[in-house]
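Entry for adenosine-5'-triphosphate complex. Fields follow.
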Amino acid sequence: METDLRLESSLWVGNKRYLAVLTGWHFKWTEVDKKNRQKKTFSVPVAEVVGVEEGRVEILPQKLVEDTDKDFTVFYVKRSSSGGSYGLLWRLGRTQFSCPSRVLRDQWINHLRSALKTHSPLRPHRLLVFVNPFGGKRKGRQIYHSLVAPLFELAGISSHVIVTERANQARDHLLKKDLTGFDGVVCVGGDGMFSEILHGLIGRTQQEAGLCENDPAVTLQPCPLHIGIIPAGSTDCVCHATVGVIDPVTSALHIIIGDSQPLDVCSVHHASALVRYSVSLVGYGFYGDVLAESEKHRWMGPLRYDYSGTMVYLSNRSYSGVVQYLPADPLLSSPRDKTRCLSGCSVCSRSTEKLFPNTSDSGSLYSSHYSQFSTDSEGEWVSVEGRFRCVSLTCMSSSCARSPLGLSPSAHLADGTGDLILVWDTHPLAFLKFLYRHTSTEDQFDLPFVEVHRVKAVRFSLPGGREEEGHEEIGGSSSRIDEEERARVDAVSRNGSQQHLAERDMRQEVTNEQKTATPFLCGLCCKKAPAVSVWNCDGEILPFTEILCKIHGQLVRLYARGIEDGAAIHNCTVETDECERRRVLNK
Ligand SMILES: Nc1ncnc2c1ncn2[C@@H]1O[C@H](COP(=O)(O)OP(=O)(O)OP(=O)(O)O)[C@@H](O)[C@H]1O
Ligand SMILES: CCCCCCCCCCCCC/C=C/[C@@H](O)[C@H](CO)NC(=O)CCCCC
Ligand SMILES: [Ca+2]
């Protein structure tokens, strides 16, 4: 196959002559001077060619075609440093080539297009796109139409675009409507919009496979459709942690070339029923309280989290709880091993073999019987009890602009585990130090009141089984919850979601009462802080306190490739000896 696609000839770019070669995997063109000496080489992996067009074509600021019969234009991925972020920005590169004859021009176009088909089998042809017009700074529609749609068109992708009119429209569409013919689903929005797509696709896949999502012991069926994320939200944590940058053009290019990144998903259960799925954060205490507070200030846009974070920090709360976890195999990796999950991660590749032992390419066939969660492992559960500032579980690093390395910098995207971070109650300034370390490269786990464990499953309950039985004792300590608090916890436990609204109203009452004092004073002495927090599940408040979480390895696939290490990957189109050396080193 590869030899059939090989083509070599002289081509011109402007007034310079190049020797162009298409090998199986690469398209290269090397400048040749008048004395036939070879100079600069440009090299593009075929898998990163976006499109090949007849004539001299421009697409920006608008599409212009000068239809000459000896010219063709190649569009491809061009990398540049992202400045502040760890990933690389992708831009559309373009080179216009001139051939000595029309026959040769057609040969080049045909060879390049066939090579594309052979080397990028996952390129989407048809996409279902959901745009949330109200996410983040409310620029979703503009971002899609001005930056993304022209690229999809250039790449020959046909898209069915739905601008949502209500929350959960995208999820419901994916659960119920005909999805035949679509290769993937794209969301233009933030983490909340991604979560809708996640729930719709996972739910649909399990329905079709006849699997019960409520049972945490069931091995769920991975979703056949890929998910693309065009970031247009407030936090865009899933995009940041899987691409490394928040940039609509970079994400659109990953979608176009059909990149594929598997992603672990955590299912959250309460009383034998599925509550939600999460990929980023299942957090109790600080992160739950920040979310609950921020919901009251949605009008502030993305700034609501900074405001609410400050308010919640000043309220100085901690909560008692019992945390049980099922540790992952410590020989495979550790949350404190100082490694990072980067594109082509070897820890994730090894996990693929374990998760999908019967298939050569894990992602393409889904016949796994490997269950990480069975009654056999019951004996391995570890249990801790006490007062926590926060309890967080994350399936990936959860990096974002606020925290460039994330909640757990060494977490892996697709290793079938999550990192459980326990922050024990501590002095306010010590907790501030912990929070502050998220904004730098300093190790937030290197603090005496912080523990981190790589896990397969987590259970959280209130001390003495309060949610279930309404016991008065808190964690065996002498403190007692009053009648109102007990009624609230019991109600949530019995009636689930509906009572959750009542719970939040009651919580609001406490907060309103507290308005008389400054939040800091509340925290320090005066008012009794609530005895329970809420769970933040990827930006949604959960209606239950007592939950069980199970990690499902590689349940979905994104059009992404993980974070590219700018220092190691030297694939910058301009070919030098250094490129070759680094490529060899990276193999
Ligand atoms: N047309 C709509 N009207 C109201 N809400 C919508 C609509 N479409 C989607 N939503 C909901 O809006 C919520 C927030 O959207 P989104 O995630 O896009 O932005 P965000 O909250 O600003 O960003 P992030 O989640 O990254 O913090 C989602 O949970 C989604 O369910
Ligand atoms: C003194 C400096 C203090 C700085 C503190 C920085 C701590 C930042 C940690 C960032 C953690 C991001 C976790 C991601 C959560 C997302 O799944 C979720 C949905 O978008 N976002 C939130 O819940 C929004 C909640 C955001 C909480 C901050
Ligand atoms: Ca993981």
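NOTE: The two ends are 23 Å apart (CA to CA).
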